[in-house]
Amino acid sequence: MYEILALKLASGVTVNDEVIKVFNEMKVRKSSTSDEVKRRKKAVLFCLSDDKKKIIVETGKEILVGDVGESVDDPYASFVKLLPLNDCRYGLYDATYETKESKKEDLVFIFWAPEGAPLKSKMIYASSKDAIKKKFTGIKHEWQVNGLDDIQDRSTLADKLGGNVVVSLEGRPL
User: Nearest 5 degrees, angle CA 71-CA 85-CA 104?
Assistant: First the structure.
């Protein structure tokens, strides 16, 4: 029954063009001026529109590359603080990490579905996840998170990125 309800609730959910634009800007790391780099998003949240028909960029829920080291000391901890405790979200996080061999950057698609979120919200977000994932071509890392305990410890993200070969995340040793 829940599956049928979830499909009905999510039918017609589309991805707003702005979401695709943000993803493409985060994915493509072309040579840019330092001002362009500073304006690039380090992390961003997406939510459903009020009418539950579109996935949109959530206003004010982003961290810019230029904020890191200025108004943001720890981009990962700041990203975790953006997540609502009682509702679902999709997120993109541009993780900078080091392995024993090299420095890397990868986008991580995060599906945030905390225990405290309403059942209806969890069902809509879960059944609409494929709509946004299909637009995010080339994402190597996907992470479903169900509470702060799962996401606060940065070593959990490091495991998603490469397991025990990751030695630091966002310049901080693990």
Answer: 50
